[in-house]
Amino acid sequence: MTLLIFLCLVSLSFLIYFFQVLALRKKLKERNFSINLPAISIIKPLKGLDDNLFDNLESFCLQDYPEYEIILSLENQNDPAYRVAEKIRNKYSDKVKIVIDNSSKALNPKVRNMVTAYRISKYDYFLISDSNVFVDSDYLRKTVSSMTEEVGLVTNLIVGTRGKSIGAILENLQLNSFIILSVCLLDKFLKMPCSIGKSMLMRKKDFEDIGGFGAISDVLAEDYQIGRLIHEKGKKVVLSNYLIKNINEYWTIKRFLNRHTRWAKIRWKIGGVKYFTEPLVNPIFVSFFISILSGISSLSAILFLSSVSFKIMLDLLVIKMLKQKVGLEIMLIPLKDLINGIIWFVPFFTSKVNWRGNKYVISKNTVLALAHENSFMRNYLKLKTIFSH
Amino acid sequence: MLLCDFHIHTKYSDGSLELRKVVDIFGQAGFDVIAITDHVVNGDSMIGKLAYKFRFTVTEKNFNEYIENLKYEAERAWEKYEMLVIPGVEISKNYLSSDKSAHLLILDIKNFLPACSSYESIFLEAKKQNALIVACHPHHMKGEIRNTLYLWKNRHKYGKYIDAWEIANRDDVFNVVSLKKYPYIANSDFHKARHLYSWKTLLNCEKDKEAIKKCIKHNKGVAITLFRR
What we know:
The complex is a heterodimer.
Chain A: H1 2-29, E1 40-45, H2 53-61, E2 68-74, H3 81-91, E3 96-100, H4 109-120, E4 125-129, E5 133-134, H5 139-144, E6 151-161, H6 166-188, E7 199-203, H7 204-209, H8 222-232, E8 236-247, H9 253-271, H10 283-293, H11 298-321, H12 333-343, E9 352-355, E10 358-363, E11 367-370, H13 375-387
Parallel strand pairs in A: 1-2, 1-4, 2-3, 6-8
Antiparallel strand pairs in A: 4-7, 5-8, 6-7, 9-10, 10-11
Chain B: E1 2-8, H1 19-28, E2 33-41, H2 46-53, H3 63-81, E3 84-93, E4 102-107, H4 119-128, E5 132-135, H5 150-153, H6 155-158, E6 164-169, E7 172-173, H7 175-179, E8 184-187, E9 199-203, H8 209-218, E10 222-226
Parallel strand pairs in B: 1-2, 2-3, 5-6, 6-8
Antiparallel strand pairs in B: 1-9, 3-4, 4-5, 6-7, 9-10
Helix pairs in contact in B: 1-3
């Protein structure tokens, strides 16, 4: 009986995985035809030093695109990213501006960092782009090609690359399997709007119609919120198949754990009961969990090892589809999946998150409250969230 | 002010990263001046012999190649990041006793200096090359079994040759340097990527080798900062 349950669950898990891979394949085959090339303001909120920061920023200055500006925004001059921003501004002074401002009261530090940059941006189209992404020179052209009249938001698929430390390798494996596959499944088969904060292209008019920064200032998942609100306004949210590179070279394991526990909490606060289906897309964890529950035996060990081998082969296929190089680090996939299985439980025990040096408590739809606020304030914010939906 | 790190190792000695990668790590982080200072180890002790065996040292044989590659990387770093790369070595006199051991940064080195020569001849030869001499990690460091205390213990004898002392090295701060009011700089003693986040020097001078050496020697417009992500 246990064996039957084991086989059913693991088979279901691999079936979902198969659909995810299919969704990615379909997504990568999409073609876009818009030839409109509007002028664009690129807003880059900077906070601290990302791996490869200089090249990441420079890659945006080297776009094969007729008219655009880049606004690098920081909260203060003491940020170590400021020196890099200054060097980029000196090198590409015709395209790049630096904005330093910390007057916004938004709780979301990324939003707080963008308000003034948005205000001084001069074009009707704007693109929010994280500082840890590297793009090729055709990025703007290809991303804009998805922006037709009925589209309100274009975001991009991300791939993790260049991992050197264990933390960075785990991070890239997670981005190049679980994250990209889940996003493609939601987009292609479940038709759910997916917006990824690393690259979001919008018209200012559409953004202001949903309430602008006021609508996203106190939520953690501002990207999800923008996508949801634009979708509710009747505009399409398009996931472009142009792959942007998230350069993660020297991450510590702690940083990997921090990011993915934060993302798990976000998914729990947004998805609610749907979050319970998530372990099903982690066949290694499912087979490990059942092996432990059913008692360790040679049969359960064989089944677990078979799941591991099959998952590694499939992940290898996905990484090849993404045209990423992979070596022996592929052997860390079981470890990564087991860690993620454990991380899945974390949101049930705590709602605290630590992001960009700030500590928050998140409630439904990732509404933020500062962690040191008293329980009265938190309850007030929870009530406010409940009654505002 | 210029953000500087004058104590950096690569795979030419016991660093974990190639020279090019090291230059890129500092360039990508917005540094203005760095000095590459791979070890030149004394071969007259057991520890020194091990360093030669495992190639954790620049030798007289590969010194020219080392300097040529540094020159190439310096040009690339200037073109791409406007970052100045100064060639250097860390003369490492390693013995079992901490009291006998000493490490010295020779910044803007031109010709090879053997580490087994006497201190006087190393100092005089460095001065002849118009190089800057920095006593590194001169006092007790946390968690180190073997320290490099010789120069501190003999500061009255050798102090006159030393242009600056490391007041901070990676996470250690040596308050004795401050108490003696010696010229100071702070460095990472970079061996691994994570060592980027450590004590650094800030200089208020032109981004030019001679101006930098003068600024450190005269110890005017020098500050230290703990560089964090």
